[in-house]
Sequence to fold (85 residues):
Amino acid sequence: MKASHPPSPPPVIIDEQCRGFQTAIGIIGRRWSAAILRALALGAERFGDILRRVDGLSDRLLSQRLKELEAEGLITRTVVPTTPV
Fold:
């Protein structure tokens, strides 16, 4: 016969953590954001690399999403002194 343990108390939900999680989900949930992050995770390093990996994404929208992701601190932009930048 196994010893019975009292049930563990439920985890405490901290409001500040919930707001941070909700913000992160809101950012990633925007159209194309998850696909862009996935392309970066799979090794895309340049603007054109991301465009080639994410079918249907326009360059205007990619530029907009990259600025948003950078502003939120999810990605960092590094300018390489080459042509094109």
Remarks:
- The radius of gyration is 20 Å.
- Residues 15-28 form the longest helix (14 residues).
